[in-house]
Design a protein that fits this description.
By secondary structure, this protein is α+β, with helices and mostly antiparallel strands. The protein has helices spanning about 5-15, 45-60, 105-115, 130-135, 200-215, 235-240, 270-290, and strands spanning about 20-25, 35-40, 65, 70-75, 80-85, 90-95, 100, 120, 140, 145, 150-160, 165, 185-195, 195, 225, 250, 255, 260-265, 300. The strands form 6 sheets. The protein has a 5-stranded antiparallel β-sheet. It has a 4-stranded mixed β-sheet with strand order 1-2-5-3, with helices on one face. Strands 15-18-17-16 form a 4-stranded antiparallel β-sheet.
């Protein structure tokens, strides 16, 4: 690939955004690790996203979408092609009984905006660090709530660059999964159907959930959040704890001593350290309990 040519072309197609080459990606993910992107494009409008998607398809260039990187591990070799970073698209608003939020808005901020508007339903998201796009991608959830419970529809771009609206069964919801994980669509905007509520009660619920999160999770270290999906009838953290793995390290990556379901970047870990520790944990839990832990975190990029 002629990276200079791609960068020049994308600057013409996304003039309101920014386009960088050979950009270090560890500054864009919560784990603070990972290699470089050939091209990092940060569009400012939906049209610019359409332009980039269409360009990548026509020129057979790999395209990777990145939100704020809260549930992603980028391998040390980085990512080839174009990385489309959405955090600049973070607008929110109310239209009728729907709350609109752009793909790059943090879902925490959307939950706070709902509180300001005295709308209930997004309290569960007050501690989820991902973007709206990421939350839809994985049907994010916490404390008994999930995105699927409150999402009315979504505006998206399909693989050919066309705008489409998805709703109902088209989302193909599952536990920590949706149609967006198929790569057929890129989320542009979510439309949440919330209900009027008492702001004091909404805030009290959010405060309680925030306390639970801060008291139980190792927020003092970089991490990708909960590493593993919940096995049927079990809890991944409990299985890891009972396997005696808390405090286990590979390089700078460590199984959290505060919450066994988290692996933290305790000391300048590489992605190889992190992934190696994930594999070690999976093998140990499988050996002790016969349970195959499935990763919730997305692992992308080159070795």
């Amino acid at each position: 690939m002629n990276i200079s040519k791609i960068q020049e072309d994308l600057q013409q197609l996304a003039p309101a955004g920014t386009v960088k080459s050979h950009e270090v990606l560890k500054d864009y993910v919560f784990t603070q690790m990972g290699g470089c992107a050939d091209i990092l494009a940060e569009p400012a409008t939906y049209e610019e996203i359409q332009n980039i998607v269409t360009y990548a398809r026509k020129n057979d260039i790999p395209l990777t979408v990145l939100g704020n990187g809260s549930n992603v591990i980028i391998r040390d070799g980085g990512i080839r092609g174009i990385v489309l970073q959405t955090s600049g698209l973070n607008g929110m608003g109310i239209h009728g009984d729907l709350l609109y939020a752009q793909c790059g808005a943090k879902i925490i901020d959307v939950s706070r905006y709902a509180l300001e508007q005295e709308l209930a339903g997004l309290e569960f998201a007050c501690g989820i660090p991902g973007t709206v796009g990421g939350a839809l991608y994985m049907n994010a959830g916490a404390y008994g709530g999930e995105v699927k419970d409150v999402l009315q529809s979504a505006l998206a771009i399909n693989k050919t660059g066309q705008l489409v609206t998805l709703q109902g069964d088209e989302f193909q919801w599952g536990y920590r999964q949706s149609v967006f994980a198929s790569g057929e669509y890129i989320v542009l905007e979510a439309r949440f159907a919330l209900i009027p509520g008492d702001s004091a009660l909404i805030k009290a619920s959010m405060d309680e959930l925030t306390y639970l999160r801060e008291s139980k999770q190792p927020l003092e270290y970089p991490s990708c959040g909960s590493v593993f999906k919940r096995p049927p009838g079990r809890y991944a953290g409990q299985l890891i704890q009972e396997s005696g793995l808390q405090g286990t390290r590979i390089g700078g990556a460590e199984v959290s001593r505060k919450h066994a379901g988290f692996i933290v970047n305790a000391d300048n870990a590489t992605a190889s350290d992190y992934i190696g520790l994930i594999q070690h944990v999976r093998a140990a839990v499988k050996d002790k309990f016969g349970v195959e832990l499935e990763t919730e975190v997305e692992i992308i990029g080159e070795e």
